[in-house]
UniProtKB/TrEMBL annotation:
Alphabetized UniProt keyword annotations: Signal
Keyword Signal: yes
Superkingdom field: Bacteria
Pfam family, one: DctP
UniProt GO BP: transmembrane transport
Name of the protein described by the UniProt record: ABC transporter substrate-binding protein
């Protein structure tokens, strides 16, 4: 399951899956395992008699498939898009008509023009649905889901009845699943994206800067408004965002420059 499915009842749960413009795989794991995030997760779920651990992650997802190119904010006005969750609420504020469809209905709806755009997961899973046959414009990077944590849910009384050694086994198994699922997605998405571009004529590109700026502003306002509604959400929000800002400073001088170096056409390419 994903914690954000409970966001209608517990908005703070959203942060334990993902929030738009939030933390990537490395960042969310650092927050959960080493900066108090997992303790907050347990605190939020305790009143419901549950214990949770991260046990999977897709990594960064894709913005989605569009039948027509996006050149400006105006192109979203009246656009019908399959996009669930908080991202859908953000899109609605720039004129998108949000449609909620199960995965199996996305392809026929996109192919027939019932919807103009759709978000699912990433290149590998999207290719399996055949979305490349219904739309050619594939937008990166998933501002709405920079990572996507899946959760292991355990009854709290059952958890507390386990001896320490069995609890350790469960924790380590969940952590191993978390790492393996992300590694699997990274390997398969890389190969699938190349296949989509080279063999299906898919056009992979980023959203225009003005669109990203607008979405970022709406997201900030939305999250702050939700955090102001209850102290639990505010506590989680403040912890998450403080860590995101610190992590962003580190990424700006570590991961990001490195990817710039290896993407250069000089040398080892």
């Amino acid at each position: 399951a994903n914690a954000y499915f409970w966001a209608g009842k517990i908005f703070a749960a959203q942060y334990f899956t993902t929030v738009p413009f939030g933390l990537n795989f490395q960042g969310v794991n650092a927050w959960l395992y080493h900066a108090g995030g997992l303790d907050l997760w347990h605190e939020v779920y305790k009143p419901y008699g549950l214990v949770a651990f991260p046990m999977g992650n897709t990594g960064v997802q894709m913005t989605g498939w569009f039948r027509e190119p996006i050149n400006s904010l105006e192109d979203f006005n009246g656009l019908k898009m399959r996009i669930p969750g908080l991202a859908g609420k953000v899109y609605q504020q720039i004129g998108v008509e949000v449609k909620l469809l199960p995965g199996g209905e996305i392809f026929p709806a996109l192919e027939r023009g019932v919807i103009d755009a759709a978000e699912f997961v990433g290149p590998y899973q999207d290719r399996r649905l055949g979305l490349q046959k219904a739309a050619k414009y594939y937008y990166t990077t998933g501002w709405h889901e920079p990572s996507n944590v899946t959760e292991l849910l355990i009854n709290q009384k059952a958890w507390e009845s386990l001896p320490a050694d069995l609890q350790a086994i469960v924790k380590n198994a969940a952590q191993a699943c978390n790492l393996d699922s992300h590694s699997w997605c990274e390997a398969n998405n890389a190969a699938a994206l190349r296949d989509l571009v080279e063999n299906y004529g898919v056009i992979a590109q980023t959203l225009p800067d003005d669109v990203v700026t607008k979405l970022k502003g709406i997201t900030k306002d939305t999250l702050e408004a939700e955090a102001a509604k209850d102290p639990v959400t505010k506590k989680v929000h403040d912890s998450f965002m403080a860590f995101r800002d610190t992590h962003r400073e580190w990424a700006a001088i570590s991961e990001e420059p490195y990817h710039g170096i290896i993407s250069s056409k000089d040398g080892m390419s």
